[in-house]
Amino acid sequence: MAEGRTLFKGANLFDGRNAPTPNMNVVVSGRRIESVSKEVPPTAEGDRVVDLAGRTLMPGMVQGHFHACFGSFGSGAPAPVLGLEAPATFLGMLGAHNARILLNCGFTGAVGSSNPYGLDVSLKEAIAYEFTDGPRLLACTREYVTSGDAADGTNRSWYMELGNTGLIRRVDGADAYRQAAREDFGRGADVVKLSAGPGHGSHPATDFCYLTRAELDAVVGVAHDQGKLVRAHCPSRSAIMECADAGVDIIDHADRMDEACIEAICRAGATVLPSMLWSATFLGLAENWDYAAQPFPIGSGFPEPLEETHKRIRGVREDFEHTCRMLPELVKSGARIVIGDDFGTAIMRHGDYVNELELYVKELGIDAFDVLRWATYNGWDLMGMSDELGSVEAGKLADLVVVDGNPVADISCLKGPLVVMKDGVFVKDQLN
Ligand SMILES: [Zn+2]
């Protein structure tokens, strides 16, 4: 089939790494970017010219913490705790739905986080077979938890483990971690998710690492031998230190990071996903709740006296303020940071991904240019795909987004992109 080329003309170009340049022209031919130039290149019969008139053209973004099947079941249904109280078949369809939302929001890449029933692997393959639309996905495993973890089904959070294939997989001892990782990689996973410590979002961090060093070494060893990634839920200082030192690739949340943690993260070359929107959203709800009128809906999994709830909320506030102070230090250190948060939990809808970026820029004062790089180049680099994606350069794959405005001046313009192109194909096209 003869493929016409597309010329994006007059773009404010954010190439993924450098400050935006106005009046640039980008030609896409087939799956790839053919040229990026200041001069308007000649076009041929059949080429499509899209005059961007100063709108911003940028690389497709990466959602670094994607729970494919978290989410409320629709307008008429009550929002479940994590969206896991449904049959596997239903969750598969919910995952496909969320993958389409993500793609339409301009995210052409995603790194999965915990999910049940091998759903991420199926979703990745369904996207590859074009059964459904979605981003390029690194499929994650269930969340490996040690017995007695706050999320362990033997505790009160029973809904986390549906049968034997729910959200969590209980693993104890180095050999068991090795076996679990081998099995999941054999079944197509790209990333193992570990629960390394309690806390984050709705609960304060406890300074604790659930896994022994031998367990961490075992799972990281198997993953790295096979060229795979390990990510860990690390709210506490000890979890961050232990995981960074053991070579865990993704430190999720890092609520209680300090200078020593930042040094360990840099030494190890680990990536941090601060995911602060969940904590901010929780606090916004919890600190303004009318407790006299009705019980607070986000509990600890069992009846909790009101004073305990308030203590918990104060603890979350303290952790959040700590992370707010430390994040600029992490930025200064040069550590790789990627965006991604717990969308699909009861108070954060899939589709609101840009709210996380707004938080960093508008509330924490981080440079929008930095945050844009976290969302683009850094994400693709984490996925091991930055040779092909993550920057707008001749020869690279054409995953592109057009937004109405300049995201460096106002990050909010990333909401509702006008154009989303994946692999040279228009997924969303509101300029036609
Ligand atoms: Zn998560």
Write up this protein:
With 432 residues, this protein is of the alpha/beta class. It has 2 domains: 6-59 and 390-429, Roll (Urease, subunit C, domain 1), CATH 2.30.40; 61-352, TIM Barrel. It is built from 11 helices and 18 strands. It has helices spanning 88-104, 119-128, 174-186, 213-225, 237-246, 259-268, 276-286, 306-333, 354-363, 368-375, 377-382; strands spanning 6-13, 21-29, 32-37, 48-51, 56-59, 61-66, 107-112, 136-138, 140-145, 168-170, 191-195, 229-234, 250-253, 271-273, 336-337, 400-403, 419-422, 425-429. Strands 1, 2, 3, 4, 5, 16, 17 and 18 form an 8-stranded mixed beta sheet that branches. Strand 1 (6-13) and strand 2 (21-29) form a beta hairpin. The two termini are 21 Å apart. The model has no long low-confidence stretch (mean pLDDT 91). Bound molecules: zinc ion. Zinc ion binds at residues 65, 67, 113, 342.
Largest sheet, strands/sense/barrel: 8 strands, mixed
Helix content: 25-40%
Number of strands: 18
> What is the average per-residue confidence, as pLDDT, rounded to a whole number?
91
Proper CATH architecture of the largest domain: Alpha-Beta Barrel
Amino-to-carboxy terminus distance: 21 Å
Low-confidence stretches: none
Query: For the record, what is the CATH homologous superfamily label of the largest domain?
Result: Metal-dependent hydrolases
Structural class: alpha/beta
**Given the C-alpha coordinates, what overall shape results?**
globular
Q: Which H/E pattern describes the elements?
A: EEEEEEHEHEEEHEHEHEHEHHEHHHEEE
Q: Taking Cα atoms only, what radius of gyration do you get, to the nearest Å?
A: 22 Å
